[in-house]
Amino acid sequence: MIKVGVVGTHQLSFPGEKEKHYAAMIEGMKKNAQDMGFELVAYAPLVITEAEANRAREYMEERKVDFLLILNISYSAGNLVAALYRIKGARVGIWSLPEGAAEGCVPYNSFCSANMYQGINAKYLRDYKIKSKWFYGYPDDARFRRRLQVSVRALGALKAMNRARVALIGGIAPGFNDLYFDERKVISKFDGITINRLHEYGEIIKIAEKITDAEVEACARDLKEDKIQRTPNAAKHYALSLKMYLAYKKLIAENAYDAVAISCWPKFQDDYKYSVCSVVGMLNDDKIVAACEGDLMSAISMLALQEMSGDSTSLMDFSAFDEEDESILLWHCGPASKKFCQKNGYTLGENYSGMAHEPGKITGIGVARDMEFDPMRATVFRFSGDMEKYLELDGKFMGKGKPSFHGSRGWFTDLKMNGQAIGALDFTNTVLSSGFEHHYPIAQGDLSEEVAEFGAWLGVPSIKKIAYKNCLQEAEE
After folding, report:
1. 75, 109 in Cβ contact below 8 A?
2. Can you tell me the distance from the alpha carbon of 249 to that of 254, in angstroms, rounded to the nearest whole number?
3. Could you say which architecture CATH assigns to the domain 3-140?
4. What is the pLDDT of residues 63-78, one digit of tens each?
């Protein structure tokens, strides 16, 4: 939960009922705090002088607010900008209000003051490079509430990332060299994040070997998957899957990790003729962020998505595109959370790509979740490279019916990239021409604005559309 501070400023020369007006705004913000899940820290006295502004800033710094809203109840002195915008440890917003009158003597001149404050920050204080988001309207206005909600979700994710503990367990999948990144760049963006790459596959096996049959049976009862249809291979390895699930949960709990990237092959396949796909899905069911194939950057991106959405995420491949209905197929072997198929349901099947295949024979290994995603809006988000850029795509899963491959999957249409419509071919061209990594974290809901604000506070730009042409194309720097 983030702390949102509010400081009201004014000037004696405007005749509006400023104290009464401010008190009403604070009451409205209390309702927003309850609805949106943030802690409100309101500074009671209205601020006029620079000395008063410094006291208000110190009050907010002592209470460690994450976001300071400077509310110009009326036009206010310009020398308050330096005192309030330069708050330590918090992001800043400027808030102005309607006048409540259309003619006669201006009662507050609030909006003009906000305009001046932003101008002072951009010009006079430009060397400080302080980012400030503007707000306008009453606390119960729909636009104000949505604008505030976007900030609360984005800043909540930032706060969570700055204290997150993430780990790689078992290394990156062999040959997946596009998933490497310099963790120092991530630490420089998320000051306070902890990244551990040193856990070995053998650690999980040692923990799993100590899990008792009684613990496995209790886990099976809790999961209530006894009526879930499963293939013979999935049934054969189901108890092993629960052991691995409990082992990962134990390691994660002991180290207080918020997100992990799991090396899901080839060791499990070589040692047990088994796929750990469903375990990844079960961890994400529990809102323990788990990325497969050792993709630590996707785990970090999934954690941010989970914080913004408030619910489980999953990690997909981009496996096909269809220009006829402008859709793309987001698919993976079977590691998706059941939160994506609450209507359609899932079965427990096999990973058909985890082992070498004999000519003319399909070799499958359990346990993987076979599901088609429910119809829903969803958002794709992932940092690219060393967090130089990020990819954002939102759209709608079509639901069950369109032919697709076994595994966890959904055809994704009504595509919008950075809030702008994009066709399937242009999107395909964009990710391939820009060299984007082959993994796509997803969350339910349209989070395009939250992702954009998250990136803006970090200073990380989005990958831009590259419209398809027949010539060689590359992303612009």
Report:
1. yes
2. 8
3. 3-Layer(aba) Sandwich (3.40)
4. 999 999 999 999 999 9
